[in-house]
């Protein structure tokens, strides 16, 4: 009998966290590594948010257990913003717990989830952990990494229960236009599907792109949609671990029951910080967004100047997702990387630049690079990749 359960043995390590950990370890050992791996803003959390947490630390009311679903003020603040009753919101330990709980609440063994690929690495693992079957729906740069109804329809089976949408997308930065979202939403409704929509990058959209929430665009979907979000990306609060989910009463009650046994309430101090974040003005966010936008444009321009690299311009989040197919199979520093995984490993060894290969997102032949790092590091990192790529024979 195997010591590790089949359920857990079936779960892969988070590739993005693994790349980030390797880069951080090399850095700690004194290597000048530049990391494009982490999905994390380089900015510190804005001061007014930190101050709210400090005040909460000193207030004995925050020293005790609080309701598992979240501090009432925070649930109400989120509920007000999205026009739902507070009882339909659960505050979670980061968006990640919300992802897991959404699928645990929705899936029975064998239920299928349509997952547009490239997808964020956590989705298929969370779906499997909940007993479900992730069904990737492959997209590429020719459609700006957006899935169309025809593609989704081709993957539909009698076991399909859930459609997952992540917009703005990790890893591609793609943002679904309103009309395309509406079309997908109506199709989901016609096919009696449940929906999970991840809106954690809602505030990070650039240029003419606009964020739209699926259950707002197609209101009839509100009763069959779980929305996921959190403060990590918008407010540079990745370490605080506050996210949330909202949706119809039955599913939210199920998720809350699970959370009440798994983790109880999220740290009160972090929730107090999140309350300041979601009720404060968004000027600090606007400033970070301007920096991301500048870096985005630099990154896209520099990557497209590298022969063998094709980088569509993303419209949201803080990632670019270039194709590196043109660099594969070529001789480079005595090696001949045949896959994006092998090329990423060579770039880390030879140029001391960390990036995440497309294998982690269900589409080999691509890299994900985060541009949530300082402008100078960004330019230096891409310059190193370019120099190395020019040696490819
Ligand atoms: N959803 C998406 C699409 C993400 O990229 C992330 C973070 N990488 C999360 C959810 C979860 O973030 P957190 O747990 O920090 O809130």
TrEMBL record:
Domain of life per record: Bacteria
Keyword set includes Transferase: yes
Residues annotated as signal peptide: none
Protein keywords: Aminotransferase, Pyridoxal phosphate, Transferase
Record EC number: 2.6.1.-
Cofactors: pyridoxal 5'-phosphate
Family to which the UniProt record says this protein belongs: Belongs to the class-I pyridoxal-phosphate-dependent aminotransferase family.
Protein name: Aminotransferase
Annotated organism of origin: Actinoplanes ianthinogenes
